[in-house]
Amino acid sequence: MSETRAPVLSVRDLAVALPAGADRALAVEHISFDVGAGEIVCLLGESGSGKSVISFAVMGLLPDNVHVSAGEIRLGDTNLLSLTAAQLRELRGDEIAMIFQEPMTALNPVMTCGAQLDELLSEHTAFSAAERHAKTLAMFEAVKLPEPERIFASYPHQLSGGQRQRIMIAMALILEPKLLIADEPTTALDVTTQAEVLALIKTLQRERGTAVLFITHDMGVVAEIADRVVVLQQGKQVESGAKHEVLQSPREDYTRMLIAAVPPIDPPELHHHFADAPALSVQELCKTYSSGGWLQKRRETRAATLVSFDVRPGETVGIVGESGSGKSTVARCITRLIDPSQGEVHLRDVKLHAGSREALKAARKRIQIVFQDPYRSLDPRQRVGEAIIEGPVNFGVPREQALARARELMTLVRLSPDVLSRYPNEFSGGQRQRISIARALALDPEVLICDEAVSALDVSVQAQVLKLLEEIQAELNLAILFITHDLRVAAQICDRVLVMQHGIVVEQGTTRDVFRAPTHEYTRKLLASAPGRAFQFAAAAAT
Amino acid sequence: MNTTVARVLRNGAVRFGGIVLAVLIAVAVLAPVLGTVDPAWLDAVNMNQPPMTKADWTGPDNQTAPRTLLMGTDSFGRDVYSRVLYGTRVSLLVGVSVAVVALLAGTFFGLMAGYFRRVDAVLMRFMDGLMAIPGILLAIALVAAWGARLSTVIIAIAVPEIPRVTRLVRSLVLSIREEPYIEAAISIGTPTWKILLRHVLPNSIAPMVVQGTYVCASAILIEAILSFLGLGLPSEIPTWGNIMAEARVVFSSAPHNMWFPGIFLAFTVLAVNLLGDGLRDTLDPKFNKRGAQR
């Protein structure tokens, strides 16, 4: 439908130059695409693909030392690159609006949500105060915020992440822009909230005929929302076309690889049975945080309530849940990074819940944890070799022997042993996560806890790390506790899963049973929210 | 690591401050061979001579010889050039020593307060109390109590700086201790003292170096103020502060006595501060980005 009309946004042969000394000369080059009215075009790419650079170029918000070196960007008949800063500022808000990834930092924390929209309206329109108020409330209603009057007077911190993102959408759309740029708008949101926000963007965009440039790294989101897709790799346009063409019959190897790396949400058949005694056994674990006391009224937050499960050698048990469900609290209690309030944790014969943290030093060796953020879980001032041998050396292994083992471990995690003398900043996210895994394995643990260990990684890297974990598990007969919010990942790697909500395990069983026949309502909702659920990625990649 | 050093050296403020400081250090070290005489020696014939006077000067060896008085003489007939150059030694020594003492003590207390909650409650209240007393008054009180020696002056200036360093280090430690790599170190069984030395300390060094330069600059100033007030080192040991104090009475007739130590003092403090700003811009990640965009 949109092909017949002139596109709202037209990008032709765009190239953006980076300052000297960057890892490449051009952030993006030879980028050409159109976004028509009422159309959603997804820019899909992994980190470093240059997708955000394109959106900043369109908005005229590139940093001072980065500039467009070739090509043109047209909004309707206007060449955006020929406008002055003042003219561009006029256009932003009026004609182009943007939604960012992190709704907390994009809203002004000291202004009420209503005032922020009101400011926008008084800046760009001639409405009276009463009209502005009415229009703002109507917009809040349109983005399905509950109690618009209350939201109007609320400050951003008083709202949930999903509500804040709705405010952002309301702000972006209230001036009825022709073009909406959405830069990873749902990445920071929980999966159920993400589904709602995606549906909302789609509905509003249909109603208003807005052209949407949607930037994402998530294949599932693309499947959910896109009309057309532009695939980017390392600043180059790999391919573009209608969603079904690109996702179902990709022409390029890179696209095929991306699609194949998306784990199917349907769990594979469970092959093995685990007859051994559990390596880790958690019984009725509770963690209650209390604040106040003394002078204020005592407030209690139950982060985890009566959590019980076993993990056997060679088995992977998953804990899935959204943020605030208490899944990380459970991991921290088990490793005694925090003290559980109640309940028992047994690592075979050792009681991890009892005794002081110091007395547990010997047991620490046997249970290891890999953290989520690969950029913060390695000490930036410590060479990776030192990081890997630190554990063994703590337990009295001679340095030379520990270093020899570290070299073996580097091979095990598919890295060259020669890089042990480098610092973490010389490695990519995926490589760092491998180093973290090597550090955990250096102590020959019986139990490995992965706390969102692959969540911060690009999908192709994620697939590699998951495969690596599986191989290591088979080789070392590790018991793995895998904590994730990503149902696709859980479906692929876990033998059994626990679903947690508000600190309570609402459902547990074999992954196949839980995913195919969920009994609890919350599990059903989670599964239904997984983006691109209807789409068979692996099948598409095979063609 | 080498790239960090290269980036620091590319910074203009670091270069300027570094070069000025290097010259001052050279002057301090080489003072005896730069044509100076004993700074305490007085030639009563030549009092309050203006700069660049060619005079017959009776030196410490009691030989009278023609000498160009580069910066003139003071009201006792002492050679201001020699006094200012020797004064550089005291100023730099006091500045650096105070920075080292304040950083060592502040780092120790900051690590303790930041990492151990129980220590924090007690120690920080004590530091708050110390900070409530104006630094210069505290220094005056301490010098008055202990007597004016170089070591006591250094300690007296360092003590009021300790709470400021402690606060900085504590705030750094509070954020570093929440980093996942600290949790990772705990879970691989690293003992607490090793976590503090190996992981927490190295990651807080950069802001501390910057803070150290500011402490150094303010120590040089406070030493000059103490000397000016007659509470610092005795006047046999020339410092910029006591040269200026003695110059005060003859300021209208012989202003050079005030000018030269003043200029040296101003340049030293400026150089140290510029060095600190440059280090902050290059070492502190928060300022890094802004620098890169320019």
SSE diagram, text form:
The complex is a heterodimer of chains A (543) and B (294).
Chain A: E1 9-17, E2 26-35, E3 40-44, H1 51-59, E4 67-75, E5 78-79, H2 85-94, E6 96-99, H3 103-106, H4 113-124, H5 129-142, H6 148-152, H7 161-173, E7 179-183, H8 191-208, E8 211-216, H9 219-225, E9 228-233, E10 236-242, H10 243-248, H11 253-261, E11 280-293, E12 296-311, E13 316-320, H12 327-334, E14 342-347, E15 350-351, H13 361-364, E16 367-370, H14 384-394, H15 399-412, H16 429-441, E17 447-451, H17 459-476, E18 479-484, H18 487-493, E19 496-501, E20 504-510, H19 511-516, H20 521-529, H21 537-542
Parallel strand pairs in A: 3-8, 3-9, 6-7, 7-8, 13-18, 13-19, 16-17, 17-18
Antiparallel strand pairs in A: 1-2, 1-4, 4-5, 9-10, 11-12, 11-14, 14-15, 19-20
Helix pairs in contact in A: 4-5, 5-7, 7-8, 8-20, 14-15, 14-16, 15-16
Chain B: H1 2-10, H2 12-30, E1 53-58, E2 64-69, H3 80-115, H4 117-132, H5 135-146, H6 150-176, H7 180-187, H8 192-228, H9 240-248, H10 256-283, H11 285-293
Antiparallel strand pairs in B: 1-2
Helix pairs in contact in B: 2-3, 2-10, 3-4, 3-6, 3-8, 3-10, 4-6, 5-6, 6-8, 7-8, 8-9, 8-10, 9-10, 10-11
Q: How would you portray this structure in words?
A:
The complex is a heterodimer of chains A (543) and B (294). The model of chain A has no long low-confidence stretch (mean pLDDT 86). In chain A, 45% of the residues are buried. In chain A, helix 4 (113-124) packs across helix 5 (129-142) and helix 14 crosses helix 15. Chain A has 2 domains: 9-261, Rossmann fold, CATH 3.40.50; 278-366 and 477-532, Rossmann fold. In chain A, strand 11 (280-293) and strand 12 (296-311) form a beta hairpin. In chain A, the strands form 4 sheets. A 6-stranded mixed beta sheet of chain A has the order 6-7-8-3-9-10, with helices on both faces. Chain A contains 21 helices and 20 strands. With 543 residues, chain A is an alpha/beta fold. Chain B is mainly alpha-helical and 294 residues long. Chain B has a domain at 89-287: Orthogonal Bundle (MetI-like fold). Helices cover 71% and strands 4% of the residues of chain B. Chain B has 11 helices and 2 strands; from the N terminus they run H-H-E-E-H-H-H-H-H-H-H-H-H. Chain B has helices spanning 2-10, 12-30, 80-115, 117-132, 135-146, 150-176, 180-187, 192-228, 240-248, 256-283, 285-293; strands spanning 53-58, 64-69. Chain B has a two-stranded antiparallel sheet with strand order 1-2. In chain B, a hairpin with a 5-residue loop joins strand 1 (53-58) and strand 2. In chain B, helix 10 (256-283) crosses helix 11 (285-293). Chain B is elongated and about 75 Å long. The two termini of chain B are 23 Å apart. Mean pLDDT of chain B is 85; it is low at 288-294.
